[in-house]
Write a structure and sequence with these properties.
The chain folds into three domains: 235 residues, Glutamine Phosphoribosylpyrophosphate, subunit 1, domain 1 (4-Layer Sandwich), CATH 3.60.20.10; 190 residues, Glucose-6-phosphate isomerase like protein, domain 1 (Rossmann fold, 3-Layer(aba) Sandwich), CATH 3.40.50; 147 residues, Glucose-6-phosphate isomerase like protein, domain 1 (Rossmann fold, 3-Layer(aba) Sandwich), CATH 3.40.50.10490. The protein is built from 19 helices and 27 strands. The strands form five sheets. Strands 3-2-4-1-10-9-11-15 form an eight-stranded antiparallel β-sheet, with helices on one face. A seven-stranded antiparallel β-sheet has the order 5-6-7-8-12-13-14. A five-stranded parallel β-sheet has the order 19-18-20-21-22, sandwiched between helices. The structure holds fructose -6-phosphate. Fructose -6-phosphate (F6R) binds next to helix 9 and helix 16.
Length: 607
């Protein structure tokens, strides 16, 4: 949901800003802009469309002199993605330029007030009220004007501000939107996330909500919302530069699919040894605390929610605890039955999803113990939860998650084993640990077993609708498989519990309707095969995902995808991989913009 970046130093700012924006483009890509300060002059360049257009307009930054600046890539919320609505926005007196990620909830009232006071608006954005407020409150100190301004704002914001009265300085403010400070040598930066900074520095400061940063080429000062100076820890970024590059792949999504064996290994390896699963991060959770848990509530959005759907089975089977799944956007407004006997597991790749954060806060307010499964270190979800377990997937750039999902499901599986052992429900963990350790290898096999996917994509790409069916653990994976297909190929894909078909949906099956049938759970194979036969007898074209050894399927399905044999309890980690590849190649056949699907953004920091 929008990416922001800021730079101050001795070299030309525009190329650094543009480079940072390219890295942040996955957060929003419908318009973009930079504001660069040269002495006391601020010049703004904006485009509707991609960063490439901004690079062209500014001659890769060469046309915009100045060593201090801010930049923005937008995912429109208020106002169409036009050049007028693109950030940065300027104050009426031209002294301030501002970029913003987030939403100002009370902007309408503020806008009316500012118009009454004589301010002119150039855009339809909520952001523009901020820059006029800063102008209104400015009386010689940008810091004071910002403090007064943010006291008037309700909502979420990461702001970057420059002022022509203070050459060489950039200001950044954070409230419920991600923002980090990059610590350089003779230059400093801010950005929505580390991917924009890894080319320049590995040293970062994570801002807390309500904090301000005042940066110049040789100094970083952080203040709280009352203006009190704060001393902050500098952290090291461990992600390597290549992790945020395509590395020879045509798309980030394909690269990230292929990275899954390594990502899952990096997630599992530190938690298994000596035939046991152990989470250092959970050492502080007492046995008493754990035994008091009566139910687990899993909450998240999108694919992270579907990872929860897949993870549920291992918790129920191994821990003997009921698992309730709640979409975060629903939980937050549902008066949920959550109390101090509930363990709420929150799943988020970015750790910045607005609904997930709200659900987590709601759970905490009701006294639940909260455990976050998160990929981004230092993110809001990671900081808010009582316990945080990181998935070590590395940066995920493609908007459609792949290694985020597989590392989440693997982590949930390990947590189920770990809790079951601590609850005394499993004595010998070795067979489960062996299954976990085999996952990275099995993912690679699931890739290698399916060289026919590009050809299958040619067969199945030209359809208006696809159905994904499965039972039990297969159904959970069907949910994510259908989402992958929808979001990147724009083909309508529905997932159904196979047993539900005859309660309505089978009416949609006609000659050549494609049905993707997941059949990797031996306890329900026979049942799913019956459903396949039902849809086939109504003309469906069936592409089945199953084990190579499932001979029966050879004669039932029209086409086949394979995974190596794996315990159904943990199979989601493997089973999703051929479906990710299928979605990828179908989208490619359809000429879609795979890494940046229309209307989507990577990190949904607005409600
Ligand atoms: C789909 C996808 C989204 C995210 C969802 C939650 O491919 O990526 O559905 O899973 O927006 O995001 P996080 O995990 O960052 O909270």
């Amino acid at each position: 949901m929008c990416g922001i970046v800021g730079f101050t130093g001795a070299r030309s700012a525009a190329p650094v800003l543009l480079d940072g924006l390219k890295k942040l483009e996955y957060r929003g890509y419908d318009s973009a802009g930079i504001a660069v300060m040269d002495g006391n002059e601020i010049s703004v360049s904006k485009v509707s469309g991609r960063i490439a257009g901004l690079c062209e307009k500014t001659k890769d930054g060469a046309a915009v002199p100045g060593t201090t600046g801010i930049g923005h890539t937008r995912w429109a919320t208020h106002g169409a993605p036009t050049e007028e609505n693109a950030h940065p926005h300027l104050s009426n007196d031209g002294r301030f330029a501002i970029v913003h990620n987030g939403i100002i909830e009370n902007y309408a009232a503020l806008r009316e007030e500012l118009i009454r006071d004589g301010y002119h608006f150039q855009s339809e954005t909520d952001t523009e009220v901020i820059v006029h407020l800063v102008e209104m409150y400015y009386a010689g100190s940008v810091r004071d004007a910002l403090i007064k301004t943010v006291n008037r704002l309700r909502g979420s914001y990461a702001l970057g501000v420059i002022c022509s009265e203070e050459p060489g300085k950039i200001y950044a403010v954070r409230e419920a939107s991600p923002l980090i400070i990059g610590v350089g040598v003779g230059e400093n930066y801010f950005a929505s996330d580390v991917t924009a900074l890894v080319n320049y520095t590995r040293s970062v400061i994570y801002l807390e909500d309500g904090e301000f940063a005042e940066l110049s080429e040789g100094s970083i000062r952080i203040f709280d919302c009352t203006g009190q100076e704060q001393s902050k820890k500098v952290s090291r970024i461990l992600w390597d530069v290549q992790a945020a590059e395509k590395g020879g792949y045509e798309h980030f999504m394909l690269k990230e699919i292929m990275e899954q064996p390594a990502a899952v290994k990096a997630t599992i390896a530190p938690r298994v040894s000596g035939g046991k699963v152990d989470f250092e991060e959970l050492a502080a959770m007492s046995d008493e605390e754990l035994r008091a848990v009566r139910k687990i509530v899993v909450t998240a959005c999108g694919s992270a929610y579907y990872a929860g759907c897949a993870g549920r089975y291992a918790f129920e089977r191994l821990c003997g605890l009921p698992v309730q799944l709640e979409l975060a956007s629903e939980l937050r407004y549902s008066d949920p039955l959550i109390d101090d006997t509930t363990l709420v597991i929150v799943i988020s790749q970015s750790g910045e999803t607005a609904d997930t954060i709200a659900a987590l806060k709601e759970a905490k307010a009701r006294g639940a113990k909260t455990l976050a499964v998160v990929n981004v270190v230092g993110s809001t979800v990671a900081k808010l939860a009582d316990y945080t377990v990181y998935t070590w997937a590395g940066p995920e750039i493609a908007v459609a998650t792949t290694k985020g999902y597989t590392t989440q499901t693997a982590t949930l599986n390990m947590l189920a084993i770990y809790f079951a052992a601590r609850l005394g429900r499993i004595e010998d963990q070795s067979k489960y640990v062996a299954a976990m350790q085999a996952l990275p290898r099995r993912i690679q096999q699931a890739i290698d077993l399916n060289p026919s996917i590009p050809a299958l994509a040619k067969k199945y790409h030209d359809n208006r609708a696809l159905f994904f069916i499965g039972r039990n653990t297969d159904y959970a994976v069907a949910l994510e498989g259908a989402l992958k297909m929808k979001e990147i190929s724009y083909i309508h894909a529905e997932s159904y519990a196979a047993g539900e078909l005859k309660h309505g949906t089978i009416a949609l099956i006609e000659e050549h309707t494609p049905v993707i049938a997941l059949c990797c759970n031996p306890s329900v194979t026979e049942k799913t095969i019956s459903n396949i036969v039902e849809v086939k007898s109504r003309g469906a074209e069936v592409l089945a995902l199953t084990f190579r050894t499932n001979r029966q399927m050879l004669s039932v399905a029209d086409d086949l995808l394979f995974i190596p044999e794996v315990d159904a309890l943990f199979s989601a980690v493997i089973e999703i991989v051929p479906l990710q590849l299928l979605a990828y190649y179908v989208a490619k056949e359809n000429g879609c913009d795979i890494d940046k699907p229309k209307n989507l953004a990577k990190s949904v920091t607005v409600e």
